[in-house]
Every structure is written in structure tokens, then in C-alpha cells.
Amino acid sequence: xxxxxxxxxxxxxxxxxxxxxxxxxxxxxxxxxxxxxxxxxxxxxxxxxxxxxxxxxxxxxxxxxxxxxxxxxxxxxxxxxxxxxxxxxxxxxxxxxxxxxxxxxxxxxxxxxxxxxxxxxxxxxxxxxxxxxxxxxxxxxxxxxxxxx
Length: 149
Description:
By secondary structure, this protein is mainly alpha-helical. It has helices spanning about 20-30, 55-70, 75-100, 110-149; strands at about 1-5, 35-40.
């Protein structure tokens, strides 16, 4: 069982209902910098088979966590996508330049190199801009809460 202050309830308004609420709540609490404590409770083992599916429900949990990260730490979300593209472009570019120096003349590898690097940089920049917007939103929400007091 997870316990949190009632004042945090507005933070959970954008989380899904049902089974996905728990991982979403835990992820959101960590991303907004709050502490939480799990309180052990005693309960009876469920009789019968579990209705959970490792693939279907695991995918749902992963998507909830990814959405919370995207909405609260977009630089981490988009950086995780952009950095592999950028590094892949650099590695492929070094390979393409090496082939060019050995006399193999081909334009498509250089086009792919450029595309990978540009997509990587754009994803990281998008994450940076989205992170600025999220930080601004948090500042505005904090100011609104202070004004209500």
C-alpha cells in the first residue's frame, strides 16, 4: 500500500485509472521529487489464476511509465531516443569516410549519416525545449498554489 499526503492528489489527475495507476503514481512521485513510503499490509493469497498477462500488462505498465517520463522529464525521454541516432550517425560517418578514403565512392552512406545525425540532434533539441516548457509549467503551477493560500 502506498500512502501520500492529500495535498498531492492534484498531481495524480493525469494518471490512468485501474491497474496502471500504481506504477504511474510511483513514477510521478519520483519525478516530482517527492518521497513516498510503502507500508506493508497483511492479506490473503488470491485463490485462482491471475488475470495479468506478462506481455499485455507489462507493455501497458511500460507505456504508463514512458508517458510519465515524457510528460515530466522530456529531456530524458527524447535524449534516450536522440543519443543513439546521433552516435549511430557518427559511427556510420566514420565508416563512410574510411570507405571514401579507400576509394569507394558512394553518396547514399553520407546521406544516411547526415540523416541520422540530424534526427539525433533534433530529438535532443526537442527534448530540451520540451523540458523548458515543463519547468515553466511547474513554476506556474507552484505560483498558482501559493496564490491560493
